[in-house]
Amino acid sequence: EEVPTYEEVAKLYPRPGLARPIVLIGAPGVGRNELRRRLIATDTEKFRTPIPYTSRPPRAGEVNGKEYYFVTRDKLEDDINAGKLLEYGEYKGNLYGTSSESVQSIVNAGYVCLLNPHYQALRMLRTPQLKPFIIFIKPPAFEFLKETRNSAHARSTFDENNSRGFTDEEFGEIIHSSERIEFMYGHLFDETIINADLSAAFERLVVAVSRVESEPLWVPASWVQ
């Protein structure tokens, strides 16, 4: 686990043509995917998300380099062992992962890279090379979370096989996971947005991204040396 320590800071000024990656951190079910989708929709020529790698074979109609990069399991395992992946996991016997190189290539091409990785990926992401801006998407209190999600007919992200609403247990898990993430990694967050109302949360996200692009912001001093 991360241990908060004192960190010398300095102002990082916006760099033309080298946008800082925007990282959305939060518990499963808190709404990060929808916020990211809405942000991309505001300017599809500006925002990019890294294409993940997978060891599973391509399905009919899938194109290598569009939905996924299709590689062998041995290749992915080698990259994992070499520390080249920001995050990785296994699902139904196939490996999936996102490489740090793919994030850097998006930045170098002049785009704003959007990520919503597992919180453990922060260790790999928060580097002087990538200089990410980390936004924690936080749920509101239990009753408000339940009321707003049920009113919006939100679909549970915990059940891939059925389209249904969230259960009380799942709402509780969202809050519990969020509290744990904030306790462990809160000292690394640049911004916290409470997703009580999706439209309001999205507006705050747009404002935060605009600040990153236009204002000098505090970062670890080692990032500007």
UniProtKB/TrEMBL annotation:
One family name in Pfam for this protein: Guanylate_kin
InterPro entries assigned: GK/Ca_channel_bsu (IPR008145), Guanylate_kin-like_dom (IPR008144), Guanylate_kinase_CS (IPR020590), MAGUK (IPR050716), P-loop_NTPase (IPR027417)
PROSITE patterns for this protein: GUANYLATE_KINASE_1, GUANYLATE_KINASE_2
Listed transmembrane segments: none
SUPFAM superfamilies for the chain: P-loop containing nucleoside triphosphate hydrolases
Domain Guanylate kinase-like: 19-210
Protein known as: Guanylate kinase-like domain-containing protein
Organism classification: Eukaryota, Metazoa, Ecdysozoa, Arthropoda, Hexapoda
